[in-house]
Amino acid sequence: MPNGNIIVTEERATRVITLRRPSKKNAITQDMYREMSRAIDTAQNNPDIRCMIITGGSGVFTAGDDLDDFLKADASRPETLSDGARFLYSLALNAKPIIAAVDGASIGVGTVMLFHCDYVLASNAATFSAPYINLGLIPIGAASLLMPRTMGYQRAFAMLVMGRSFTADEAQAAGFVNTVVSPGHTEVEARKVAREICKLPAEAVATSRKLLRAAPEELTRRIDQEGHLFGERLKSDEAVAAFKTFANRKKR
After folding, report:
1. Residue 222, phi then psi, degrees to nearest 5
2. Average pLDDT, the chain
3. Residue 101 and residue 92: Cα distance in Å, rounded?
4. Which pLDDT score, from 0 to 100, does residue 2 have?
5. CATH code for the domain of 171
6. In whole angstroms, how far apart are CA 7 and each of 24, 59, 65, 204?
7. Is 104 among the domain residues?
8. CA-CA distance, 67 to 240, in Å (whole number)?
9. Any bridge partners for residue 120, and if so which?
10. Are 118 and 97 within 8 A, CB to CB?
């Protein structure tokens, strides 16, 4: 896999997708998006895989998009969002339970993807934010649909429009974290949950999950709508100024 930044392993009936780019706080590149999409997509028709875990290892989940990589891709091809969009589509169309193990910071798409997961464990050192607003941008990944449904309009407004960060306890109270554990224990506990799910009747799990979740078509429509508006926002004066500030800060 490119640079080894995404590690995919299998343990019994569970596929574990690990973000492994510690020097960059697991910031996600276009290559990493492609690898995560492939790991999710290839599990769909594999009856041996009953469940998936997404983790960033101990101490961090992900800092979100690698902005340097994002800006380079944006400069080279206008469809730069396609790799990220493909990953979001993979999450939206996925039919198998996904568990997230979050130990440390979860920023941007790192937090958005949790709302596509079925069970989320977080350490009490975890924090959650989706501060697109600070770059003059808007939410992605059907966040504008899933977040208000999950945690209510006011909390979604605080996170998506005001750019506020949530602690693990606040995330649990908001309903998008199931269990809070000690730092360093999220992956172990995620594997326990996976084993519990894998013991259940697979077809009944799939059907029940489908009934509980928003229809994939509804999710992809919102992903497309947000993606269109996101592209427009990238060209806005607010976003251009915010990215210029980011670039200048990197040069110092």
Report:
1. -70, -35
2. 93
3. 19
4. 45
5. 3.90.226.10
6. 16, 17, 18, 30
7. yes
8. 13
9. 100
10. yes
Start-to-end CA distance of the chain, whole Å, equals 33
- Tell me the CA distances in angstroms from 169 to 120, 181, 211, one per residue in order: 12, 10, 28
Residue 174 pLDDT: 98
pLDDT given for residue 249 in this prediction: 79
Model-level pTM? 0.94
Q: What's the total number of domains in the chain?
A: 1
Query: Largest alpha-carbon pair distance within the chain?
Result: 56
Strand partners, 127: 105, 167
pLDDT 10s digits, 9-64: 999 999 999 999 999 999 999 999 999 999 999 999 999 999 999 999 889 999 99
- Residue 232 inside a domain? The answer is no
Sign of the torsion angle spanned by Cα atoms 201, 52, 132, 218: negative
Is residue 105 a contact partner of residue 63, using CB atoms and an 8 Å limit? yes
- What 3-state DSSP class applies to 103? coil
